[in-house]
Structure formats: C-alpha cells, structure tokens
Amino acid sequence: MSANQANLYKKSTQDAADHLVQPWPSAGSIGAESRGMLGSGEGVYVHDEKGRKLIDGPAGMWCTNVGHRNEILADALKEQAMELSYNSPWYTSNEPSAELARRIAEHAPGDLNHVFFTTGGSTAVESALRFAQFYNNVRGLEGKKKIICRDGGYHGSTYLSASLNGSQRSRNWMDFADDMMIRLSCPDPFRRPKDMSLEAFRDQLVAEFAEAVRVNGAENIAAFVGEPIMASGGVIIPPEGYFKAIRDICSANDILFIADEVVTAFGRLGHVFASEACFDVVPDIITFAKGVTSGYFPLGGMVVSDRLLSGLRASNHPEAMYAHGLTYSSHPIGCAVALKNLDILEDNLLEYAREITPYFHEKMKMLEELELVGEVRGMGLMACIECVADRESHNPIRLDTEVGVRIDRHCQELGLLVRPLVHMCVMSPPLVITRDQIDTMAGILHEGISRTMRDLRQEGIWQG
Ligand SMILES: Cc1ncc(COP(=O)(O)O)c(C=O)c1O
Question: 120 C-alpha to center of ligand 1: Å?
C-alpha cells in the first residue's frame, strides 16, 4: 500500500471516529467509533486499511451477489444518472421501474404481479405491514391488526419492522409496538428438545401457530411475517412442511402470509424467489431488497398479490388512500441497476449458484470435525457455523466471549471476512465464488476456528 493510501485510510478512520454514527452502536461508543475500513473490492475480494486482500465471506451483508466491481452494474448506474437521475414518484413514472416491476412479476409465484419499490429491506417490510393494515381497514375489519412473528427473526430497523425482531439483545433498550405482535418460538431444529424427531418438532411449531390463532382470534390477526430461512438469526431452516402447514392455517383464517425474502431472493438460494421454488409456498406478499441490486444501489420492495389489489379496487371505498410512499420509491437509478443485475442472474448466475451449492456445503460441513463446532448448516449459498461449549447439550460458548468475533479476527489475519453473530459465524459469499475460492475460504475458517479453540483453552474459558 502506498504511503498516500495509508494516510487516506488514517484520515478516514479519524473522521469516522470523530463524526460518524455507525449503525447499531453501543451507548458507550456511539459517535466515537471507527470500524474496519475497506477501500476497494473486486469479484469476491475486498481490500482493507491494513493492505489485506480478504474474501468477502458474507458478501457485505447478503448483498454483493454478482461480486464487487461489476462493470455492467457500474455502467448502468452512470448511464441512468446521465439519462434521468430522479423523478418524483408522486406525479410521474420512469421506464426502468416499470420494466423491472414487470420482470419481477414474471419471476414471482402465483398471482403476485405488482411491485411497490422502496429504499431497502426495512422499508419493504414496513410497507407490507402498513399495507396489511390498510387492506383490513378498507374491508371494514379495523380490529384485524395483529402480526405473528417469531423469536430469532430479523426484519429491519424501522418501528414496525423492528417490532417483529426476535433477538433479545436488540430488544432490551429500545421501544416497540409490542401490543401488535404475537411472538412464536424460533423454528430452530438444532435447538429442538433432545430425542424429538424433526416431524414432531414441526408438528409442535404448527400446533403453537394454530393455538395462537385460536387464542387471539383470527378476526384480530392481519398477517404472519417470516423469513423462509432466518438469516441474521443464524441461517435457521425450519423443518420440512412447516411453511406449507402455516400457509394453510393463514389461508383458512384470512391471515396474510408475508414472506420476507430480503435475503433469500435474487439468487442466494439459486432462484429469483425462494418461497415456492424451495418451500412450495405461494405467499400473499413477498418483500425483497439487498440482492436485487447486488447492493450497488439501495433498493427494496414488495410484490403483492393481484387478489389483494383487485379486492381493494372493487371495495366500497375507492377513495381510501394507502397513504404511504417514499421520495425514493421506484428510483430510476436503482431500478436500472436492478435490471442489469437481473440480466446477469438470468443469463447464468442462478444456474451457477445452484451448481456450486453442493460443493460449498461439502466444504463447510467439514468444519464439523472441529470440537468447538456444534453444527454447520445451510442452504443455497448461505451457511452458519454454530459453536458450542458442549456438543452433548449444545450449550453455546458463554456469550461474553464473543466467539464469532474471535474467529473473525483470526480469519481476517488469514484473508477472510466472516460475519460473526455472537457464537456463530455466517457465510454467504458472492454467488460468483469459484471452487478454488471456496477451498481457500474453508481452509481459512478451519485454521481460524482452530486458533480460537487454542485461545479459549489458554484463557481457561473452554476445555473442550
Ligand atoms: C430478512 C431481512 N429483512 C429485512 C432486513 C432489513 O433490511 P435493510 O437493512 O435493508 O433495511 C434485513 C436486513 O438484514 C433482513 O435480513
């Protein structure tokens, strides 16, 4: 790294510590923190302030599906900015958003044929929840407002979307619309009761759902919101048949099924949308973001069923307004980038992601030979390495030891960025990753976890 570049990094680090408020800060360091500075990226790699070239193991945050520095997307950004950089979606439309809506509708399951664009995932989920409320108000069902969500879920940082979130750590110091939420158990097979079969576990979860509907009354419940795979909860894949059973209960009780595909859509599981392709379910609404532009521009949205929209159009209240929209709804640049991103996915990247997936899991699964690793699980190009203190009881390593952060630190020294989640490490590389790069990633993870095991033993924290 040149001295000039090193100075630039130093200055940016200071600027961040002096002036930048980072997302999800702790009170003790809010507004006074600098995080690892990245300078550039190329394909699956990013370069950092220490001059290191790192494999971007989490693809940013489930974002960079086509990889960094993709010229086609970069050109699309510039060309659209030179054509029409912005238009007010209140009074006008633009061509890229109209075309993108059509192409997304072509990929969406069932009668999900209309798209409302937002600025990201939280605003997509927020829009879906506010739509569900509006839908019931127009139908004269003003009491039908509660939302079913689950422990372990993550849906965003706006007030309503955050109220769905299920991680205790994020709930302690913030306010939420808790009286609107019905919170159910996390469908985590790894943490099911010992000696319970997967089928029995699924039946228990479905019975819990049915009981919640009975106790609260279907007339009070607007929607269920769920990620097909709980991503930030640790790549939690519910038992087979779970979603189908829940879909059936929702349909029978006039409860909207909202699939939050902010992570799973646009290639992560090898398909544009995963709900039907991977879980055999047609939702009423699907939310998406992240991979829709591979993170090159902030864009999200919801795809809505024709049934809901035509119901509204035919209602007794044609003047009732869905008073919800964003200055950057249908942003022409975001939509132009998303169109090129979709071209790349359709051309061969979806197929490639499906092809490379078994190799990715074969390599990740090998990490289970390490004593600290309780389970490696995943689907598509999503994997989670869950560490445990004790393989028998599945007890996580004491949370204050932040095992994931320790592993990440070692892996960064070796050339890999990891997404640490308390005692877990989440891996979701760009879909363009090659076999050789997967080998390197798996090798680094093996060494990084081994070094962490050594440290934990030396510090007397773990004796496994
Ligand atoms: C499933 C899911 N929904 C919603 C969100 C919120 O998206 P954003 O951070 O773009 O607002 C996330 C973010 O990670 C997510 O994983």
Answer: 7
